[in-house]
Amino acid sequence: MAMNGSSMAKKFGVLEPNSPNGEWQSVEQTVTSPNTKELPYSLFQWTLPELKIRQIRQMSGGTSFNEVFLTDVRIPDAYRVGDIGEGWKVALTVLGFERGSSNGSSRVGGNWAQAKGLAEHLNLTEDPVIRDQLARLYSQYRIMVLNNQRVVAQTKAGQAPGPEGSISKMIWVKSMNLMSDVITKMLGPRITADTGEWGTFEWNEHLLGAPGYRIAGGSDEIQRNIVGERVLGLPGEPRVDKNTPL
Predict the structure, then answer these.
(1) By C-alpha distance, which of 189, 206, 205, 198 is closest to 120?
(2) Is the confidence at residue 239, as pLDDT, over 50?
(3) Sign of the dihedral defined by the CA atoms of residues 158, 163, 169, 170, in that order
(4) In sequence order, what are the beta bridge partners of 43?
(5) Rounded-to-integer distance, Cα 214 and Cα 223, Å
(6) CA-to-CA dists, residue 152 to 27, 148, 158, angstroms
(7) d(CA 137, CA 177)
């Protein structure tokens, strides 16, 4: 099948236009249908000549995302994932894994131990305000870890991720934004310039990237709607586009 359109894709330094690794990207094809149930879900390689990839520069200076343009990209049916009418279901499953596995990484900006280490390095562990903020951060971090352990246990048991994965995403976002508040309080203006001091400047990338955490993988508003409607069973918001072709 031939595909045309554009998409946003994560890069994180490995999904380059001429990557020798032939990294794979997924795509949903829109067909003339009044709902998402008719979407197929396919895979394609970044090395296809019909692809145009443009990096997106973020305010942190990094390029964690690409904008991908598809022009008459022909994808063999063998690369389709699931049945033709199951594309949306596959996409939701992928999103469920992404949201359910949201957590802090070992990189600066996502680790409780690094925040604690910075406080110790700056001799701020006895400051009552900093101690209070660190206690809140640790509590939130433990909530995130325990929730992730629950998700991992479900996955090992063979359960597909469900809408409750949005809870993990919201916990992660809250943790990362709280991390920003604590680090900013500890470093002050030193967070904006590279003084060469241990544990200072690298936090700048996290601080500038924190606003994007609320958007990545679906905005906070979308996550709350998912939890409210699909987990708690609350009435859905009124929509006027349910019968509008995609």
Answers:
(1) 198
(2) yes
(3) negative
(4) 26
(5) 10
(6) 26, 6, 10
(7) 10
Q: How far apart are the C-alpha atoms of 35 and 37, rounded to whole Å?
A: 6
DSSP per-residue letters across 166-212: HHHHHHHHHHHHHHHHHHHHHHGGGGGS--S-TTSTTHHHHHHHHHH
Query: Residue 139, by phi and psi: left (phi above 0), alpha (psi -120 to 50) or beta?
Result: alpha
Rounded Cα gap, residues 34 and 42, in angstroms: 20
Structural contact between residues 166 and 102, judged by C-beta atoms closer than 8 angstroms: no
CB 102 within 8 A of CB 96: no
pTM score of the predicted model: 0.68
Integer Cα distance of 58 and 167 in angstroms: 26
Tokens of 46: 């970044």
Residue 199: both structure tokens together: 């544990």
Residue 204 contacts residue 192 (beta carbons within 8 Å) = yes
What span, in angstroms and rounded, lies between the C-alpha atoms of 89 and 239?
20
User: Which range, 22-26, 178-182, 196-200, is most confident?
Assistant: 178-182
CB neighbourhood size of 96 (10 A):
20
Both tokens assigned to 138: 């640790």
